[in-house]
Every structure is written in C-alpha cells, then in structure tokens.
Amino acid sequence: MTTVQDRSQVALPSLAAVYRTRASVELKEFFRQRESVVFTLAFPVILLVVFGAVLDYDIGGGVTFTQYFMAGIIAAGILGASLQNMAISIATERSDGTLKGLYGTPMPKSAYFVGKVVQVLAVTVLIVAILLAVGVLVYGIDLPTGSDWVTFVWVTALGSAACTLLGIAVSSLAKNGRSASAMVTPIALVLQFISGVFFQFSQVPTWMQTIASFFPLKWMAQGLRSVFLPDFLAAQEPAGTWELGRVAIVLGVWCVAGLLLCVATFRWQDRGSD
C-alpha cells in the first residue's frame, strides 16, 4: 500500500522534460491535421510553382522575377507558419476547451508557449527548406553566399518571432478557429499583395507601400531580398538601399510589441466562460 510519504517522494519531471513533451505533442498534433499541413506547407510551394511558371521574365540585369519572388514567398511562408498558424490553432483550442483543460493541470503555463514556439520553428525550417529546394531544382534560383546566410538567418528568426507573438495576441480577438481563419487569412493576403510578395515592391502604389511599412511582412521580404538579389537592385527600394539596420529595428520592435500584446490579451478560455 502506497503511503502519503511514498507519494510525496515521487520525483516530478524536470522543466526541460515537460518542455520536450509539450513540444512533441504540438508537433504531432500539427502534422496530424491534414488541412493545416497542406495550407501551411503546400500553399507557398504551389504559389512558387505557379508564379514562377507564369511570371518568368527578366526584371533587369539578367535577374528573373522568380529570383525576386523567392524572398517574398519565403516571407509569406514564415507569416503562414507563425501568425496565421498561431492565431487559428490557439483560437480553436480555446473554443473547444483544450486551453481551459490545460490551465487546470499542473503543467507550467510556459510549457504551452514553448511547445507552440518549437512547432513554429520546426514548420518554418521545413517550409524554407522545401521552398529553397524547389527554387533551385525547378527554377535554378541562386542561393545566398557567404555572410548573406547570416542575414538570411537573423531576418528569418526575427520575422518568425515577431509574427508568432502577433499570432498569439490576435488569437484572443477571434471567437473560435473558424472566425480566426476568416479574420486572419484576408488580412494576410492583403499584406502579401502590398508588401512586395507577388509584385516588385517598387510597382506597388506609394500609399500602399506606406501602409505595408507598418507591418513586419514588408521588412521581412525586404531583408530577404538583400540576400537573394544583387546589390544594384537595392536602388529600387524606397530608400535606395536594403536598410538592414532598420529591418532589424522594426522587426525587433514588433517582437516587443507582440510580447506586450500577448501579456495584455491572452485568455485561457472564451469570454463567455470567464
């Protein structure tokens, strides 16, 4: 017969073990949802294949639009894996009672967010790898070289962090997963059109460029263009340069703002259940 003293001596799992378990659960749940996997992973690849085939023209200096498009579609893929994915999945888990159930368990609340971050990181790496592979094998995209890889990594990391935090914050604005999808997806598509994803940013009307500059997608795409395009094309940017310092500042500010919004708005259950 187990005594109270015996039960009190049972070793609790370490925080690192709890984090690993939660991250494993999040990854398994994501890859078991076919709709999420197809939309998050396949959609950017489909766009790359379609736009690459239709808009395969020279934008100047022997640079193809597909080479230009590579930066934008990777930025859009990061947006989908982070902001859209987080907003929809967390809103769904809140409306179906999953979050309320987790809140009542001994699991540290931080483990839930660590699991989500690991999921976003894994999916982002997978999306980027698939897009780069398709770009190189199908369209002969020139990959970054030398120190450009460093820029590629920090722009991707900062952009993903900013969009993940925003996705967590936005999830609290939706009543459920369906309303989150209906709310976030149109906004994401509009941002993609005005942020230099589907067109050259220099061809976007000035007033749209101004609106896009308030959001992280524009800066992600600009930072990634600096590693995929030759330096002479920086003259087509609004400031005439890649502005990598400003890219880092803006994405960093969005990370801080997103974190503050998460702290201020995140809820473990629907408003009607509070």
Give a short synopsis of this structure.
This protein is mostly helical and 274 residues long.
Q: Can you describe what's shown?
A:
The chain is an all-alpha fold. Helices cover 71% and strands 2% of the residues. The protein is elongated, with a radius of gyration of 21 Å.
Q: Strand pairing plus helix content: what structural class?
A: mainly alpha
Enumerate the strands of the largest sheet in spatial order, edge to edge or round the barrel.
1-2
Oligomer: single chain
> Helical element count?
11
Q: What distance separates the N and C termini?
A: 41 Å
Mean pLDDT: 90
Give a quick set of tags describing it.
mainly alpha, two-stranded antiparallel ribbon, 274 residues
Write the topology of this structure.
Layout: H1 4-8, H2 15-32, H3 34-54, E1 58-60, E2 63-64, H4 65-95, H5 98-103, H6 109-139, H7 148-170, H8 177-194, H9 206-212, H10 216-228, H11 244-265
Antiparallel strand pairs: 1-2
Helix pairs in contact: 2-6, 3-4, 3-6, 4-6, 4-7, 4-8, 4-10, 7-10, 7-11, 10-11
